[in-house]
Design goal:
Blueprint: E1 6-10, H1 14-26, E2 30-34, H2 40-44, E3 51-55, H3 63-73, E4 78-83, H4 88-96, E5 101-104, H5 109-128, E6 132-134, E7 138-141, E8 146-149, E9 152-153, H6 158-168, E10 174-176, H7 177-184, H8 193-210, E11 217-220, E12 224-227
Helix pairs in contact: 1-5, 6-8
Length: about 230
């Protein structure tokens, strides 16, 4: 890491916040901690962290609301949700609102460091890619993590953007759910296939709202999905 990445920890339990901050600082990150949800947006308006570790249960604004607002205003900031809720619906909800990853309590400090590094690696890989991947219908602006359809911002979450980017780089190629999961999560975790289906469903809905005449993300029954540019 050529320079220390800046991180924001939003956690209302001081011991947990301090543990994460100490461990991440030891691994070379610059860390700020906040304990109240209402403090987050004003702080972000003055600072530009690479990543936010965001607890779901917070006083003031909750983590899911904050995740949605952060993604709307600062799409390039990576988000890792931290939750004591282990139900799949909560995990899906957190990711669909814009989070890049999640960590379930209780967790080890090493797991936090590993997840942070993995998410930042994915973010850096996207930033190092060509600035725009274009075709007649959709343009990807990777510097701003935006997908534009005829100039209209589709408002994709980070995960949706990555899925579209992967498929657009290989038009016509059929990706299995497992292959798409490998691109979404490079730490070999086990993730339900319906997680991919959920992200694809929302991605297709957003594209359809902007391009109702086209179906550029297509399902291949029993196999997976492909990006099929117009024509």
């Amino acid at each position: 890491m050529s320079h220390a990445a800046s991180l924001l920890i939003v956690e209302d339990e001081p011991k947990i916040a301090r543990l994460m901050a100490d461990y991440l600082t030891t691994h070379g990150f610059e860390v700020t901690t906040l304990g109240h949800g209402d403090e987050v947006m004003p702080w972000l308006a003055q600072h530009s962290p690479a990543l936010v570790l965001l607890d779901i249960m917070l006083p003031g604004k909750d983590g899911l609301t904050l995740s949605r607002e952060i993604r709307q205003h600062w799409p390039a900031i990576a988000i890792i949700m931290v939750t004591a809720k282990v139900e799949e619906v909560d995990r899906l909800l957190g990711l669909e609102l814009g989070a890049d990853d999640y960590i379930c309590k209780p967790f080890s400090p090493r797991e936090v460091v590993a997840r942070v590094k993995a998410v930042l690696r994915r973010s850096h890989a996207a930033a190092d890619a060509p600035a725009e991947v274009q075709n007649a219908a959709v343009v990807l602006n990777e510097d701003g993590w935006q997908a534009l359809a005829h100039g209209q911002d589709l408002g994709l979450t980070a995960v949706e953007f990555q899925l579209l980017r992967v498929m657009m780089q290989a038009p016509g190629r059929i990706f299995s759910r497992e292959q798409l999961m490998d691109h979404m999560y490079r730490d070999n975790r086990i993730v339900s296939e319906r997680t991919v289906d959920s992200h694809i469903k929302k991605l297709r809905k957003k594209i359809h709202e902007a391009l109702p005449e086209l179906e550029i993300i297509r399902s291949v029954y029993g196999v997976g999905y492909k990006y099929q540019p117009e024509g």
